[in-house]
Amino acid sequence: MVKHSNKKSAMHPRNVLRTAPDYTKLAIKHRDFRQVCELELNGRVSLNFRNERTLRELTKMLLLEYFGLHVEFAPGSLVPTLALRLNYILWLEDLLAPLKLDAVHGIDIGCGSSCIYSLLAAKKNQWHMLALESKQTNIEYARENVKRNNLEHLVEVYAQPDKNNIFKSYFETASRLPKEGFHFCLCNPPFFDSNAENPFGGNTRNPQRRPAPNNVRTGSAEELTCAGGEVQFVQRIVEESELHQERVLIFTSMLGVKANVPKILDYLQKRQISNVSTTEFHQGHTTRWAVAWSFQQLSLKVDAALSSPDLYRT
Ligand SMILES: C[S@@+](CC[C@H](N)C(=O)[O-])C[C@H]1O[C@@H](n2cnc3c(N)ncnc32)[C@H](O)[C@@H]1O
């Protein structure tokens, strides 16, 4: 029987991880990664995704192998998975492509200790990134990661003084803003609700329908939780986007749960924000969602022809 690949649930066509990496070859090449690999009887290596150190070394190795990025994570902080972050960046590339911009300026809301989105955007596409972060150790690590990769000319890490703010503090205090404003903002919001009795709840984001995830959860409570969880966090971005609608062309955020997508769409509709689109990011067994909105007259629909492998080659 011929097996058809399910295109709808595949990674973005330009995602370099769409073809599964050869871990055996990579283990031979990268010593630190080799140390977390397990050797099977057939000579191939396998990975234990339930082990935090394994995830850490895997992401570090992939960032180095595919993008030449040297990244360190603060102890106990979120270890980002690369395939998802790439899918998000590639969607942004598609949204921005029709604008044919010479220089792109973006905002990374909550960059984490890795600063992964900003580093990828800068290294891969030479985008100028403003990375906002509220947690002190993450700010320090993010700045070091930018420096270690000689990307200070493209990435600024801004210490968010008030966790309840998104753009407000920066826009009110910045000494210089890009002349043409920012073209987009992206966000992987704190997901869990800190007001919940047991913020981390069960061991899955959708316990009724899904088995426990293969990957161990990484990250501190401060990084992963906020009052009201991701819905309230993204609602705050929406509210502040109204105040700064001229400063950012396309506002976006990721969402960790499908059921939260209609909640954000309803919120946007209630506030009469009508230029809106959504997408899905597929990476293996994991799906995430994202919402985009704009106050300007521009299309937020991605032209399928633009998602070709030739756009923004790495
Ligand atoms: C889920 S983590 C995402 C980290 C990184 N972007 C990634 O995808 O791996 C959310 C991050 O947002 C930060 N954060 C929370 N509230 C914030 C705020 N109001 N402004 C800036 N950063 C914030 C947290 O400290 C944390 O590092």
UniProtKB/TrEMBL annotation:
Statement: the UniProt record of this protein carries the keyword S-adenosyl-L-methionine: yes
Enzyme class: transferase
Region listing for Disordered, in residue ranges: 198-217
Keywords on record: Methyltransferase, S-adenosyl-L-methionine, Transferase
Molecular function in Gene Ontology: methyltransferase activity; nucleic acid binding
One BP annotation, GO: rRNA base methylation
Pfam family name, one: Methyltransf_10
Enzyme Commission number(s) of this protein: 2.1.1.-
Binding site for S-adenosyl-L-methionine: R85, G110, E133, N188
Protein name as annotated: U6 small nuclear RNA (adenine-(43)-N(6))-methyltransferase
Species per Swiss-Prot/TrEMBL record: Drosophila virilis (Fruit fly)
Gene: Dvir\GJ21733
